[in-house]
Amino acid sequence: MPIPLNPDQQHIVEHRDGPALVIAGAGSGKTRVVTQRVAHLIHSGVPASSILLLTFTNKAAREMALRAARQQGVEPDQQKILNGTFHSMASRFLRRSAKMLHYENQFSILDASDSRDLIRAAIAEKIGKPGRNFPKPSVLSSVFSLAFNRNCTRESVMQSNYVKRHFNLNELISLEYPHLENYLEELLLILGRYREKKRASQSMDFDDLLENWLELLLKYGEGLSLKKQLQYILVDEYQDTNHIQASILEEPAKPHQNLMVVGDDAQSIY
């Protein structure tokens, strides 16, 4: 039996169509409200397979989907709620459509160690043996990822090809890594080579998953099929969402605008 909701929470659960932004602090029951909203939608006749539930760990997303199913008195495996993180959903959709981007559907996903190794190889190929003060691969991996997460937009994905996207690396270094400014020319070469090597090895890092999913949504039929499939999109912990993730959400939500995001703006990291 679900814990009773207060009037504001009940209003959120029963909100039917159109966008909704729910701002609430820690301990206010945000996740419980999202879970009960999913259950309410299914009870109202919305097919579970047309609901997308996103949060920032796969475990949390699975638990929310299971609770929503159980509140409807059915076995969880009978409820095909799409649930997961942005990255897991990106991987899922890319696995079936990656060939549109000239990847095999069984592409590899790089972990942090794999990324450092490829960057190390890119350094060796582009500048040879680096000096003692040259930034380590782990530092460059963090710098490249931060540039991507701050500056990747739908415009950058639409306007240039994969290898040439540098995501304002020069601006980021000028503002936040001034001690690396003397290496900017080399870093741009290394970033370009790193991206070439990922592409050549049929590999994606975690940032590529988001970038390539957005490209699929913007340029190819994946966007149309997802728009047809999804009727309701719910995002928990929305304060952790960055620009590219927000752009990803916009595409499948366009036909109906049934997008509900829930978060605590006091904890925003972007």
Task: Describe this protein's structure.
By secondary structure, the protein is an alpha/beta fold. It has two domains: 7-93 and 216-267, P-loop containing nucleotide triphosphate hydrolases (Rossmann fold), CATH 3.40.50.300; 111-201. The chain has helices at 7-14, 30-43, 58-71, 86-97, 112-127, 137-151, 154-159, 169-176, 184-200, 206-219, 221-229, 243-253, and strands spanning 20-23, 51-54, 82-84, 108-109, 203-204, 232-235, 259-263. α1 (7-14) packs across α2, α5 (112-127) crosses α9 (184-200) and α10 runs parallel beside α12. The mean pLDDT is 89.
Core attributes:
270 residues; alpha/beta; Rossmann fold; 2 domains; two-stranded parallel sheet; 53% helix; 9% strand; elongated
Number of helices: 12
State the total count of DSSP E strands: 7
**Could you say what the CATH architecture of the largest domain is?**
3-Layer(aba) Sandwich
Spatial extent as radius of gyration: 21 Å
Q: List segments where confidence is low: pLDDT < 50 over at least 5 consecutive residues.
A: none
- Secondary-structure element order, N to C: HEHEHEHEHHHHHEHHEHE
What's the shape? elongated
GO molecular function: 3'-5' DNA helicase activity; ATP binding; DNA binding; hydrolase activity
Pfam families: UvrD-helicase
Keywords: ATP-binding, Helicase, Hydrolase, Nucleotide-binding
Domain UvrD-like helicase ATP-binding: 3-270
